[in-house]
Amino acid sequence: MVAGEHQAAAGRLSGNGDADAARSGVRVLGRVCQAAGRNGRVLLVLGLLAGVLLPGLAAAMRPFLPELVALLLFLAVLRIGPRQAVGAVRDLGVTARMVLVCQVLLPLAAVGAFGLLGGHATLVATAITLMFAASPLAGSPNLTILTGFDPAPALRLLVLGTAVLPLTVLPVFWLMPELDDSAAILGSAGRLLGVILLAAMAGNAVRLTLFRVPSAPALASLDGISAITMAVVVIGLMSAVGPALVSEPETVAFWMAVAFAANLGTQVAASLVLRGFAQRDELVPFAIVAGNRNIALFLVSLPAELADQLLIFIGCYQIPMYMTPLVMRAFYRRIAGASP
Length: 340
Prior knowledge:
Elements: H1 2-38, H2 40-53, H3 55-61, H4 65-80, H5 82-86, H6 89-116, H7 123-133, H8 140-147, H9 152-163, H10 165-175, H11 182-209, H12 216-237, H13 241-247, H14 249-274, H15 280-291, H16 304-337
Helix pairs in contact: 1-12, 2-12, 2-16, 3-12, 4-11, 4-12, 6-7, 6-9, 6-10, 8-15, 8-16, 9-15, 10-11, 13-14, 14-15, 14-16, 15-16
């Protein structure tokens, strides 16, 4: 009897020890994720460097990009919650107008401007116009989080902009004969919209059941997981830049300058324009989306020769894109503080 009691007590102690070890492991993991969230901007820069300096690793990561992008969307929706993601009726109206400006008026203005300058058919004109015609970057809500602002407006722009892309892209395609395969881009947009909707449903389901009232440390840990995932994604996206940097450094330098001017320049211009119109919580997410677009979506619809020529620009475009939280954070804090 005594021996049995000793065995039971030992079992309880062992069970308690295992539970304590598990709780300790969870706490350590939580602290690691929170540290990653606090240093997310640095992680993105490290991901960019790894993608350039380790082309083998970048090539190995590339096949997993669709799944990682879906995970990013899931994490963004999980953090935001269904109420903020959908927004009020007023928010949806503002979102629709922003989509019209970003995906229709901007690319048409670019076509007109390059036409007047005599550069309508140049590769730079095609790259910039396609950038403006593209739907928002799938990771734009995560970039907004890392910049320190509300990601919900960016998520609404992402969902609506992707949903209407088959319609908004048609006028641009009609004015640019070199972009002649509209059926392919419609299919790609449909597939991307399907991924977004599935990730949104999964994120909302978890938020409404297992993550209904997240604590501040839990949200900080979620931000860290998002930052780590984005750093891994950017490694795969840089797979074309590393080899080109060795074989064609002048070409990479040229397209890097174009990419920085197009991405960060658009963000700055959008911020200054929106400062007089947008609500304070919308200004920064809208500006981030304006400069960060899913231009890679068009690769499936372009003629093979044109797609190959644009690959360097698309690779270079990832650098200002994922440096946005690091480069633009101070600017956005100043501009948002001065907004209405």
